[in-house]
Amino acid sequence: MIDFKELLKEHGIPPSLQRIKILEYLHDFNTHPTADVIYQALMNEMPTLSKTTVYNTLKAFAEKGVIVELSLFENEVRYEYNTTPHIHFKCIKCNIIYDISESFECLKNKEIEGHKVLEHHIYLKGICKNCRDSEE
After folding, report:
1. What is the 3-state secondary structure of the chain?
2. 50, 34 in Cβ contact below 8 A?
3. pLDDT in tens, 17-39
4. How would residue 117 be classed by pLDDT, with cut points 50, 70 and 90?
5. Greatest pairwise CA separation for the chain in angstroms
6. Alpha-carbon gap, residue 41 to 35, rounded angstroms
């Protein structure tokens, strides 16, 4: 079991009930949610929660490396708890974003053609296996 309170402290973020709940949500639901989705999911449980608090909390988490902020496709920002390098695949039919653990040999390089690689992001678009199965 993850101690979210300690995790926040380790990253220099004072833990509060709202911050812990937002982090728990991201951990428990690997759906790459937007800030609005997180707010909607938590507002009944936490009536004093505001959208501003959710946005500010997510921004602080991303700046401190607790979560990853994804500007994947179009103009939407999504968030995820998984901070390890991986590939994202977005289905153009159902709009679900999947984590793909496939790795490419070139991504293991810390330098490519003389360029120092600090981080990498790969985003794929297509039709997911569930949508393909339902089409057949």
Report:
1. CCCHHHHHHHCCCCCCHHHHHHHHHHHHCCCCCCHHHHHHHHCCCCCCCCHHHHHHHHHHHHHCCCCEEECCCCCCCEEECCCCCCEEEEECCCCCEEEECCCCHHHHCCEECCEECCCCCEEEEECCHHHHHHHC
2. no
3. 999 999 999 999 988 999 999 99
4. confident
5. 53
6. 10
- Residues constituting the chain: 136
Q: How far apart are CA 129 and CA 136, in angstroms?
A: 11
The token pair that represents 8 in the structure block: 């926040």
What are the tens digits of pLDDT across the range 31-65? 899 999 999 999 999 999 999 999 999 999 999 99
Q: Distance between CA atoms of 58 and 5, rounded to whole angstroms? A: 15
- Residue type present at position 69: E
- For residue 32, what are its two tokens? 């790459």
**Closest of 84, 116, 90 to residue 103, by C-alpha:** 84
What does pTM read for this prediction? 0.78
